[in-house]
Design brief:
By secondary structure, the chain is α+β, with helices and mostly antiparallel strands. The chain is globular, with a radius of gyration of 23 Å. The chain has helices spanning about 25-30, 55-65, 85-100, 175-185, 215-220, 240-245, 270-275, 310-325, 340-345; strands spanning about 5-10, 10, 15-20, 35-40, 75, 80, 210-215, 250-255, 260-270, 290-300, 330-335, 350-355, 365-370.
Length: about 375
């Protein structure tokens, strides 16, 4: 059977340079036995490599100009969008692989009964209905997922139904007042619960006791990443972070409370992001070497309930604004990938900028945020 040609452009994530085969391709190979010829192009050398196909160079130009997204890969020379945490893109990408291999479309209904799983992982799928019945699950976790009626961790809830005994219940949603209103009207549902406008049993930390500092090359030399969503380590030879240290003096900000990390903000000089094709790269006329990108937010309740919604993210952003102003940067840009971040940026003076990218299916974002520094 003829091999499928897979190509991708390498990129830097938070912790290391990533040139791995996309997971959707790797899983497709494991499950079908189809082999691929894999080619990866390093953004640091791509401009001087004579063997790089023209369509790859065109894709690189689109990314650097803010017209394309870096997550795409190529199947037999054709671009396949693969946005971060996008189940729709993952499903479409698998169908592209099926078509390239000449395989039939897979069945869209799966039933698992009387099975014992050490680990059951559902990743990159789109489902109309998922039902769990007559099952025992020691731990159910979800991250970067979207649900129509139930959502866990850093997401939105359209409908939440609880019709069982709950020993411990912690709610850290965006609208606690709706839950309080329901509880006050229907005490029978919360017979032993303590109802208030906030988690009164949690001792909130005073924001004035939180310090913020720039992460420098010395922090990078330790090989520790402060964001708990990562594995806690970072590549010491991370070219993007090293270049940011050289140009800006650091590669991110960390919030600390009594030497305990409780927040993180990733940053990247836009000219560095352009060269290495890393992170979010919005279009714009401001000088890229004088524009700072806010690339990642992790703070508050992610590190502990005592830090939830006390203003840590705002303090991180405000420090970045102060430092960018002192270094004579003209602009700060950010991608609000979470609905809680957008209001924060607006409170800090950022303006919402629409992206007009009609007809470009590879560009997933529709808006970003910009602050002109005076």
């Amino acid at each position: 059977m003829k091999k499928i040609k897979i190509e991708r452009i390498g990129s830097y994530d938070c912790t290391h340079y990533n040139d791995d085969l996309p997971n959707v391709v790797r899983q497709f190979m494991e499950q079908t036995g189809i082999e691929v010829d894999y080619y990866v192009y390093n953004p640091n050398t791509i401009d001087s490599d004579p063997d790089v196909p023209e369509y790859i160079l065109e894709a690189v130009q689109d990314i650097r100009a803010g017209r394309g997204a870096k997550g795409a890969f190529f199947v037999n020379g054709q671009p396949v969008p693969l946005g971060a945490h996008s189940a729709v893109d993952a499903v479409a990408a698998r169908q592209k692989l099926l078509d390239a291999a000449g395989l039939d479309t897979e069945a869209n209904q799966i039933t698992l009964s009387a099975r014992n799983f050490e680990n059951l992982t559902i990743d990159g799928n789109v489902a109309k209905t998922v039902s769990l019945s007559n099952s025992r699950i020691d731990m159910l976790g979800t991250f970067c997922s979207q649900f129509g009626h139930v959502h866990f961790f850093d997401s939105e809830i359209e409908k939440l139904s609880v019709d069982c005994a709950v020993k411990t219940f912690h709610f850290a949603g965006y609208d606690i007042h709706k839950l309080v209103e329901i509880a006050n009207q229907h005490e029978e549902l919360f017979r032993s619960a303590r109802i208030g406008d906030a988690d009164t049993h949690i001792h909130r930390i005073n924001i004035n006791d939180i310090s913020v500092r720039l992460l420098t090359k010395q922090d990078l030399d330790f090989g520790k990443h402060p964001c708990i969503i990562t594995d806690g380590t970072v590549d010491l030879a991370h070219l993007v972070n090293l270049k940011n240290c050289e140009l800006f003096g650091g590669w991110g900000y960390v919030a600390e409370h009594d030497s305990r990390m409780c927040g993180f903000l990733g940053i990247c000089v836009k000219s560095v992001a352009q060269r290495y094709l890393t992170g979010f790269l919005p279009p714009g006329d401001t000088p890229f070497e004088q524009t700072l990108l806010l690339t990642c937010f992790a703070g508050g309740g992610v590190f502990g309930p005592e830090y939830n919604r006390i203003g840590i993210a705002a303090k991180l952003v405000q420090q970045a604004i102060v430092d960018a102003h002192e270094r004579r940067y003209v602009c700060i840009e950010a991608n609000a990938h979470d609905r809680g971040i957008a209001p924060l940026l607006e409170r800090c003076g950022f303006s919402r900028i629409p992206l007009m990218r009609a007809g470009n299916e590879m560009f997933a974002e529709s808006t970003f945020y910009r602050l002109n520094i005076t």
